[in-house]
Amino acid sequence: MSVFVAVDQIDKVFELTGGGQYIALKGIDLQIKKGEFVSLIGHSGCGKSTLLNMIAGLDLPTDGLVTLEGQRITRPGPDRMVVFQNYSLLPWRTVRENIALAVDSVLNGMPAGERKAIVEKHIDMVGLRPHADKQPGMLSGGQKQRVAIARALAIRPKLLLLDEPFGALDALTRGNLQEQLMQICEENQVTAVMVTHDVDEAVLLSDRIVMLTNGPESKIGDILEVDIPRPRKRMEVVEHPSYYSLRSEMIYFLNQQKRIKKIRARKTAAISRHGLEKVNLEIGFLPLTACAPLAIAKEKGFFTKHGLDEVNLVRESSWRGIVDGMSGGYLDAAQMPSGMPMWLSLGGNKNQPLPVVTSLTMTRNGNAITLAKRFYDEGVRTLSDFKQYLLRTRDQRHTMGVVHPASMHNLLLRY
User: Fold this and answer.
1) pLDDT value of position 149
2) By CB neighbour count within 10 A (0-12 exposed, 13-18 middle, 19+ buried), where does 231 fall?
3) Which domains does the chain have, with CATH numbers?
4) 127 against 22, higher pLDDT
5) Model confidence pLDDT, tens digit, residues 359-415
6) CB-based contact 346:406 (threshold 8 Å)
7) What is the bridge-based pairing of β-strands 191-196 and 159-163?
């Protein structure tokens, strides 16, 4: 499929009241295909709604451009309809009249009978026939949001934009509306972009999930492809093999962004004293015995003794956290397996080479192979026994677990 919406290297800069600038978005590059459902996710303040507003034409990028079917977006238009979290309905008009207002304004060249038929069709589409003559004040939150969705779709937009459309709804109403929205989008081949904070909602509705880093200068941190086939049912999606891996990936990303925010708040401009290039360092570690030299150096004041006055030890939960910290620049150094510096330098992380300096190897000892109980039952007691077992079962497939591609565990097991 060809590119339907193109966001081409856009920056968004806001002028501050007291002078200076705030760079909200930096170098955003995104292509959306026709019929695709894309979700934008990230922490508050990362620029999700700002990006959505620029696609809608409600705001313009400071640099770069946004196009729809090759045409530059410079202002709002009926080919892009936005569904807001606050419904945005006229309180003195009924459900039917709110939808008709949009249809009569945009499709005014169409005969009145056809316009009326479109209004009635969309009332039925969102299941509001019993409430068609009620004003918004007589409707529940979920019913109001259905009116907003019907109004948006009734004018046949090329692109549907949703800004946290279900954020204010209770769980049951939200779930029902999510399924209705999926059905409507699939039946009408709607192209949609949605802002959300809900990881489960993103997995359920999306073809792709765009994850934005924290501001200022928010960027696209990663894009997840959702390979769960359609049509999808909310209660069945959780049974798909990819569901929990996608969900875990988003939660990991959001947690990392939260931690990065805390570290950046602590981390001031580079300080140089005592003839050293920098004395305020963030050093990552995993709570393993190999981190003992770092912990002792911190507790015994060795860093301070050598002029490193502001060293923070940052506990990570996995080697991936160490890698992301080094790649993202919010860790200055880290305890890591001896093979990891070379792995990083050669582009082992997403084929992006990151030259690093390794000053010493803390340990290569203490590694062992841990086998499942069935090996013990097979008589495997020593490394020699294990070797003989592998030779006897060379026609079978054996799976070994390692903590990281660059770990000593991997090297030793291969040896």
Assistant:
1) 83
2) exposed
3) 36-60+71-260 (3.40.50.300), 271-345 (no CATH), 373-414 (no CATH)
4) 22
5) 766 555 566 778 888 888 888 988 899 889 989 998 988 888 887 777 777 777 777
6) no
7) parallel
Integer Cα distance of 152 and 98 in angstroms? 11
Q: Which two tokens stand for residue 172?
A: 């049951």
Give per-residue pLDDT as tens, 219-264. Answer: 898 899 999 998 888 888 888 989 988 998 898 888 888 877 777 7
pLDDT number for residue 146: 84
Place of tokens 């003559």: 133
Summarised one tens digit per residue, pLDDT across range 80-133 is 888 887 778 888 999 899 899 888 888 888 888 888 888 888 888 778 888 989
Q: Is the pLDDT of residue 65 over 80?
A: yes
- Rounded to whole angstroms, the Cα distance separating 231 from 218 reads 33
Burial label, 270 (beta-carbon count in 10 A; 0-12, 13-18, 19+):
exposed
Residue 73, token pair as written in the block:
């977006």
Q: Is the CB of residue 94 less than 8 Å from the CB of residue 132?
A: yes
> Quick one: pLDDT band at residue 55, thresholds 50, 70, 90?
very high
Q: Is the pLDDT of residue 210 over 90?
A: yes
Instruction: With 0.85 as the threshold, say if the pTM is over it.
Output: no
| Polymer length in residues for the chain | 415
| CA pair distance 375, 386, nearest whole angstrom | 8
φ and ψ of 224, to 5 deg: -100, 135
- Three-state helix/strand/coil letters over the chain: CCEEEEEEEEEEEEECCCCCEEEEEEEEEEEEECCCEEEEECCCCCCHHHHHHHHHCCCCCCEEEEEECCEECCCCCCCEEEECCCCCCCCCCCHHHHHHHHHHHHCCCCCHHHHHHHHHHHHHHCCCHHHCCCCHHHCCHHHHHHHHHHHHHHCCCCEEEEECCCCCCCHHHHHHHHHHHHHHHHHHCCEEEEEECCHHHHHHHCCEEEEECCCCCECEEEEEECCCCCCCCHHHHCCCCCHHHHHHHHHHHHHHHHHHHHHHHHCCCCCCCCCCCCCEEEEEECCCHHHHHHHHHHHCCHHHHCCCCEEEEEECCCHHHHHHHHHHCCCCEECCCCCHHHHHHCCCCCCCCCCCCCCCCCCCCCCCCCCCHHHHHCCCCCHHHHHHHHHHCCCCCCCCCCCCCCCHHHHHHHC
